[in-house]
User: What shape does this take?
Amino acid sequence: MDLSSINPALLLASLLVAATPILLAAIGELVVERSGVLNLGVEGMMITGAICGFAVAVETGSPLLGFILAALGGAVLALLFALLTQFALANQVASGLALTLFGLGLSSLMGQGYVGIKPPPTPKLDIPVLSDLPFIGRVVFSHDLMVYFGLALVAAVWATLKYTRAGLVLRAVGENHDAAHALGYKVVRVRLMAILFGGACAGLGGAYISLVRVPQWTEGMTAGAGWIALALVVFASWKAGRVLLGAWLFGGVTVLQLNLQAAGVAIPVEYLSMSPYLITIVVLVIMSADKSRAPASLGRVFHASS
Assistant: This one.
């Protein structure tokens, strides 16, 4: 066992990378749930975004175009969920689970010709002077654009929900859709936009896994990341800041257990592999002890005639 082989700067830098796909998917789902909709199809949208982004990046040589099409792919799958739940008034839980199964099957079909292929590298931002700073430069200023985009998105969602009229309307729809409808707000339109946003974010998270985190395509490569994102939203009490902390926690423990394995720590590999999920859940349960409740209309069907 040689713990000195673990580089703290590299560990923290890897934490940000590992947290990004979970963060992107979770912040999108937070917006969806704050509008009063429960979409359990995050895993399906992530894996669809992963193959869409990977295929487009490989065929065009442009990772940026891959991310854009990944967001579109996730949004298209989310649109299917929206049609089922907001217009056909289908059960949200059943529709979300069906969406996950559909996404897993569709991605497996689409990805058959891409196994074993390497995507074009996603360039990292080279920030003059800052990137050369000791320790801080390696940890903070040595990442690709999507890492910073994820952080900016969290800040934007937090500010929008807290300080803008659009955020107020979204929260009103999530808390009491009948009252919001009586006040003249377009409940279905608000929820449709939230669902599409959540799908696009999930697609971006999936593409980050296939283009950056693990730059290759393998069937089912999201490996439960969508379910972790769903749990993150609930245990973070539907607060953007806590989602960020939860994603960092999961990413940090994931990277740490890989480093501990490489250092030869005498702990069975199976225990190390399960530790990111177990520790994240335990800590987030403790974080949610303030008894913050879910949006009152979460999962409830809205009838426009009511």
Observations:
- The chain has a mean pLDDT of 87.
- Residues 8-34 form the longest helix (27 residues).
